[in-house]
Design brief:
The protein is α/β, with parallel strands linked by helices and 365 residues long. The chain folds into 3 domains: 2-106, Rossmann fold; 126-296, Rossmann fold (3-Layer(aba) Sandwich); 300-364, Alpha-Beta Plaits, CATH 3.30.70. It is built from 13 helices and 12 strands. The chain has helices at residues 2-5, 18-28, 35-46, 50-77, 91-125, 141-149, 191-196, 198-205, 220-236, 256-269, 286-296, 311-323, 347-356, and strands spanning 9-11, 31-33, 129-135, 166-172, 175-181, 209-215, 244-249, 274-277, 300-308, 325-331, 335-343, 360-364. The strands form 3 sheets. The protein has a 6-stranded mixed sheet with strand order 4-5-3-6-7-8, with helices on both faces. A 4-stranded antiparallel sheet has the order 10-11-9-12.
Length: 365
């Protein structure tokens, strides 16, 4: 195949042993890499920050450390693609050199992590909730981040466009919250990468709410697979106890019937998860998503109020439309009943204004 295709490299979708890589390279005379090495190569191309580059180099060196002695032993038997230059080393010298470089990078990452903790403490002093965007790579997390914050972080159809975190302030019906865009997950995320990217993934574990973004335009089997992979990754970093909302993104690519059946299927499969269909690209249902975020963060309360049919009530109703989410309005002979969602910081004010026009709160949840 290599000869017929003129291939320059062989890529295996699973993990290979060093002896397998060596023998395959010897047989084909081209470089052979496995799934882990492929992910690293993609990460190297996508990395743009100092932290991301250090984390990728750490993962590469930890992988190298686990195979150092075997690679040197094989290289001494005869150089093959991917093993060039290793034959000149003694195994212990090469092994210790890698350990030294790992320690140096870990020290640099500790300092970055310390600074991140300082920033997190400062954000906590402001009393704002922290929301983390998580999900499978290329699900639209950065597009949703831009839509919610009116920022312009890099987006694209490629996998792993985001390899470092970005935190900004977003508005949820008059209340501010921090939202963080994080690195995307993949199926069978190697534990070495999870450990190397811990300082980045730690942001998720410290959040008050996780927005799990899922590309709902794919086949239901793919959607199920990627939800399972994302939940598995969150489990590995001990983030499963954090409240979660699943944003089913890219509904603009589906018909209403397709969306209905997919949401019904997912709701049956994951009874403990809350699903909100959205289109981050076109801003569809973002207010609905914010409402669910507010409820989950307990910053939002549903109220039912009644007011007499008079001019003052309609003036207040206009203000209510501007400052709350009006679910619906009902009328009878001499009063109107308004069902609204209210930010916590406005509840007392709403009550006072309603009482002033002779109305009352008849129920709350």
């Amino acid at each position: 195949m290599v000869k017929n295709l003129g291939a320059e490299k062989i890529i295996f979708g699973n993990d290979l042993k060093v002896i397998q890589i060596y023998n395959l390279a010897k047989a084909t005379n081209v470089e052979v890499i496995d799934r882990f090495q492929l992910i690293l190569e993609i990460f190297v191309k996508r990395a743009s920050t100092k932290e991301a580059k250090l984390q990728i180099e750490l993962a590469r060196l930890q992988y190298e450390l686990a195979h150092a002695r075997e690679k040197v032993r094989l290289a001494k038997m005869g150089e093959q693609p991917g093993f060039h230059g290793l034959g000149k080393y003694e195994a212990d010298v090469y092994y210790n050199e890698i350990k030294r470089r790992i320690h140096k990078i870990q020290e640099k990452l500790k300092e970055i992590r310390r600074l991140r903790q300082v920033h997190r403490a400062r954000r906590a002093e402001l009393g704002l909730s922290l929301i983390s965007l998580a999900g499978y790579t290329n699900s639209g997390k950065s597009t949703l981040f831009n839509a919610l914050t009116r920022e312009e972080v890099l987006t694209g159809p490629e996998v792993f466009t985001t390899l470092s975190t970005t935190t900004r302030v977003m508005d949820i019906f008059g209340e501010k919250a921090f939202i963080t865009d994080t690195v995307g997950f993949i199926e069978r995320l190697p534990i070495t990468l999870i450990e190397a990217f811990y300082s980045t993934l730690e942001e998720i574990t410290c959040s008050d709410l996780i927005l799990l973004v899922v590309d709902i335009s794919e086949t239901i089997d793919e959607v199920m697979r990627k939800i399972a992979s994302s939940l598995d990754a969150l489990r590995k970093i001990d983030a499963m106890g954090i409240p979660m909302i699943v944003a089913l993104n890219k509904i603009d690519l589906l018909s209403k019937d397709e969306l209905y059946h997919k949401v019904a299927y997912l709701s049956e499969a994951y009874k403990n998860l809350k699903f909100v269909p959205i289109s981050a690209l076109y801003g569809v249902n973002l207010d609905l998503l914010k409402m669910e975020m507010s409820k989950t963060l307990k910053r939002y309360e549903d109220l039912t109020i009644t007011m007499p049919l008079q001019q003052e009530s309609f003036s207040l109703l206009s203000w209510i439309y501007e400052n709350t989410k009006v679910h619906r309005i009902g009328y009878d002979n001499d009063s109107l009943k308004v069902y609204i969602g209210v930010p916590q910081n406005l509840i007392e004010k709403i009550m006072a204004l309603v009482e002033r026009v002779g109305g009352k709160i008849v129920s709350s949840t």
